[in-house]
Structures are given as structure tokens and as C-alpha cells.
Amino acid sequence: MKARKITKIVEKGKVYITSTFNNTLVTLTDDKGNTLGWGSSGAVGFKGTRKSTPFAATSAVEQVAKKVISAYGLKHVEVFIKGPGAGRDAALRALKSAGLMISLIADVTPMPHNGVRAKKKRRV
């Protein structure tokens, strides 16, 4: 006989949103960081330039949130946003409208403290 898969009930989780100029990636995890579900604007069905729109980001977040809420019963989330893309604010609104309670919003965009060494001066 095949063993049944036991789905755990997760009430608290984390949402990682990476918003680039070309796409928006969403990953929903539990408290420990184990992935519960993920998606992107491309995975929802948008192609090319339309992947970078706020509407595409909203669609991606809604799809992932519905899937995870129905499978694991997620209620409260902490949101970590990374990147400069157009889907940042839209993704937050989509999380709120999906019925998730947001307890924390953090911007984790990497910022260089001094960057890489500059190229040597050009001599003509």
C-alpha cells in the first residue's frame, strides 16, 4: 500500500518577492524557510514586456497565495521585497486582497557599500 501524504497546517509564513525590471518572482515559505509554493509573472502566462507590469505581478501573487492558503491554511505572513521593479506595490496589494494578514514588510534590496573597483583611467 502507498503511504498517504500528510499535509501540515502552517499558520505563519514568509513571502519573498523579487521584482526585477523584466519579471516578478514570488516564493511563499513557512517560518523555517521551507518552500510551500512559488510562482512568477511568466509562470502565470505573461510573455515578453507584459511580464514586468504591475498587473502581471498581481496575478502571480494571487495564484501562489490561493494555492498555499488552500493547501496549508496559511493566515499570517511576513513580506520581504527585493528589487527595483514595477510589481513591488502591486504584489503587496494582491497579498492583502488574497486574505493574508501582513505583520511585517521589509525591503531587502542589496545595496553596495562601495561596489567593485573602478576601471583604470584611459590614457590616449
UniProtKB/TrEMBL annotation:
Domain of life: Bacteria
Keyword Cell wall biogenesis/degradation: no
GO molecular function, one term: structural constituent of ribosome
Chain segments annotated as coiled-coil in the UniProt record: none
InterPro entries: Ribosomal_uS11, Ribosomal_uS11_bac-type, Ribosomal_uS11_CS, Ribosomal_uS11_sf
GO cellular component: ribonucleoprotein complex; ribosome
BP GO annotations: translation
A Pfam cross-reference name: Ribosomal_S11
Record flagged with keyword rRNA-binding: yes
Keywords: Ribonucleoprotein, Ribosomal protein, RNA-binding, rRNA-binding
Annotated function: Located on the platform of the 30S subunit, it bridges several disparate RNA helices of the 16S rRNA. Forms part of the Shine-Dalgarno cleft in the 70S ribosome.
Matches recorded under PANTHER family: 40S RIBOSOMAL PROTEIN S14/30S RIBOSOMAL PROTEIN S11 (PTHR11759)
Family designation: Belongs to the universal ribosomal protein uS11 family.
Listed NCBIfam families: PRK05309.1 (NF003698), uS11_bact (TIGR03632)
Subunit text: Part of the 30S ribosomal subunit. Interacts with proteins S7 and S18. Binds to IF-3.
Name of the featured protein: Small ribosomal subunit protein uS11
